[in-house]
Specification:
583 residues, alpha/beta, 18 helices, GMP Synthetase, Chain A, domain 3, single chain, globular
């Protein structure tokens, strides 16, 4: 589609954004200035828990609401910063009573319960390592990750434990303790009751000196084959979380913030736990899964002002015949962001039409730990673009060959691999137990993201696709995202996933898997219409040659369409790691 500029700042901003002169501040920025925003531990060093919770609890925000939890059955609980300090201190003392120390890996496996968020802060306080897992994981991915992560403690619920974990215990010799959130009494010396342990623990805990480079979080990323990677992050990552919270998510003291991401993936920790509390704002947590009516009611009833969600959720909302501004009071909502996979231009414009606000895309990865490239509150939007690098981040498009040593910066508009100059605070510090794999992620002191993109003359970056997703057809290099975005311009298309299907003549043919909007039914006539639509918009060389209708496309829980799974199923190949597949 033809790109159009959207002026960012809407007329109904209730709070002024953190406006900045992007070019001036980008060139003058120093990470040393961000360090001044943090109090630091009285005992020395930098600890996430102290900066996110305790310093607010020790000051004028002590009785401000930090967490609003909305239960799946209608429950509602609130916790102040002081209460979060006290409860997380109890959990830190629980860990100490169990012999857990600095660097020990504590795994969490639960739905979005308050205890999960309290435990995360307590883990940071004890200088142990938070290892969050999706509650929807099956036994095999749970076992793989806990073995690789050297799990010593697992926090989960009775139902999940009985269904998925108990049978694994003999194969997890390093696992010392399982803490169950919802049992009253200990089952054994190994299977313990959280409430019983917490009742015996003090709510006073002094955080020991913490080096900014101490490990804080271990996230696992799914691979196409084999074991997932364990991505190591450190306490110093909060520099990036604070910076992006201020300049990208535009957090102000009076904001009500809602990140829909599960803590089982990196957005749910970096921006569902850490960033909002670094800024001392109220954080909404909803236990339930996606439900359009419930989500709009949360936005309305909780008076949400900043909403951070995923493209898959936006596309689901787009499929519904709802007019949210007429049916709900969304007057407090002033900023909407999206992450997880590229946001199609149609979704950005849908936000303007249906929410009265554009939806801002931003780009980052589990490995980057925080937002790297974004559409800022202070800058205009180009729908479909990733945006501009945030302060302190140097991004470039490169062409490289590790065998020959070639490493060249691409020209404006030239396609290549997106690379980030190493050294940003939330940069991952390793792949656990895989040093060589980590080293191969860098070339000439640049982190190679594996994403193909280009940069336009305005400095904005545009996503093309993963390097292993690129389709080679009749000598052309086709990015699946471009084709998907174009197909979504058709009024019948809700979602599209595009792959290259091997062909002996042209190398690969472009095949599209289409999910239709409500009111449209699959038919041969519609298939021909969509093929013709693609040819008209993209040209014969790039447009899909084949179209297959599917009611739901396979996606990860973070919202990414799993193109490699579509391709594996199309070709009858092994599906690889599908532990993050949305069910």
């Amino acid at each position: 589609m033809k790109v159009q500029w959207i002026k960012k700042e809407p007329d109904n901003f209730s709070i002024r954004p953190n406006l900045m002169d992007y070019k001036k501040e980008y060139s003058a920025f120093k990470w040393e200035d961000v360090a001044l925003q943090f109090q630091g531990l009285p005992s020395g060093g930098l600890n996430i828990a102290h900066e996110a919770i305790d310093r607010h609890a020790n000051g004028p925000r002590a009785h401000k609401t930090a967490l609003v939890w909305l239960g799946v059955n209608g429950e509602r609980r609130e916790f102040t910063f002081l209460q979060m300090k006290q409860e997380s201190s109890r959990f830190a003392n629980v860990l100490q009573s169990l012999g857990l120390a600095k660097g020990d890996r504590i795994f969490t496996l639960a739905t979005r319960l308050p205890e999960l968020y309290i435990a995360a802060i307590g883990i940071f306080k004890n200088r142990s390592v938070l290892c969050p897992l999706f509650a929807q994981f099956g036994p095999e991915p749970i076992s793989q990750r806990m073995k690789k992560g050297d799990a010593k403690v697992l926090l989960t619920t009775k139902a999940i434990f009985e269904k998925k974990v108990r049978s694994l215990l003999d194969g997890l010799p390093q696992l010392q303790t399982v803490i169950l959130i919802d049992i009253i009494e200990d089952e054994s010396d190994k299977i313990r009751s959280l409430s019983s342990l917490m009742a015996q623990a003090s709510d006073i805990f002094e955080i020991a000196p913490t080096d900014p480079e101490d490990m804080s979080i271990l996230h696992f990323t799914s691979g196409t084959t084999g074991m997932p990677k364990g991505v190591v992050h450190v306490h110093k990552a909060i520099y990036m979380h604070w910076m992006s919270g201020k300049y990208v998510l535009d957090m102000h003291p009076d904001d009500i913030y809602w990140c829909t991401a599960d803590p089982g993936w990196v957005t749910g920790t970096s921006y569902g736990i850490i960033a909002p509390w670094l800024h001392g704002i109220t954080n909404i947590v909803d236990e339930a899964e996606f439900d359009a009516k419930r989500w709009y009611e949360i936005l309305q009833n909780e008076k949400v002002s900043i909403w951070y969600t995923a493209p898959t959720a936006v596309r689901r909302l787009m499929r519904l015949e709802l007019d949210p501004l007429k049916e709900y009071d969304l007057s407090n909502l002033r900023l909407v962001h999206s992450v997880g996979e590229p946001l199609n231009p149609e979704a950005v414009l849908w936000g303007v039409e249906k929410l009265g606000l554009p939806i801002h895309d931003n780009w980052w990865q589990t490995e980057t730990g925080g937002i790297m490239i974004a559409n800022f509150a202070s800058e205009p939007i180009q729908p479909g673009s990733m945006g501009l690098p945030i302060l302190g981040v140097k991004a470039s498009i490169v062409n490289h060959d590790s065998d020959s040593g070639v490493f060249e910066m691409a020209k404006i508009g030239q396609k290549g691999e997106l690379a980030i100059k190493s050294g940003w605070p939330s940069m991952f510090r390793g792949y656990l137990h895989e040093e060589e794999r980590y080293k191969k992620s860098f070339f000439n002191n640049w982190y190679l993201t594996g994403d193909l993109a280009y940069q336009d003359k305005y400095g904005y970056f545009w996503f093309i696709g993963r390097s292993d997703d690129i389709i080679k057809t009749s000598g052309h290099m086709v990015g699946p995202f471009e084709v998907e975005s174009t197909l979504m311009e058709h009024p019948a298309v809700a979602e599209a996933g595009v792959i290259g299907k091997p062909d002996p003549v042209v190398g690969e043919v472009v095949k599209a898997f289409i999910a239709l909007k409500a009111g449209f039914m699959p038919s041969e006539e519609l298939r021909r219409e969509l093929i013709g639509f693609g040819r008209q918009k993209l040209g014969v060389a790039v447009a899909p040659k084949e179209i297959e209708f599917q009611s739901d496309l396979p996606k990860t829980r973070s919202g990414k369409i799993m193109r490699r799974l579509l391709k594996a199923r199309e070709m009858g190949l092994p599906e690889g790691d599908i532990s993050t597949l949305e069910h």
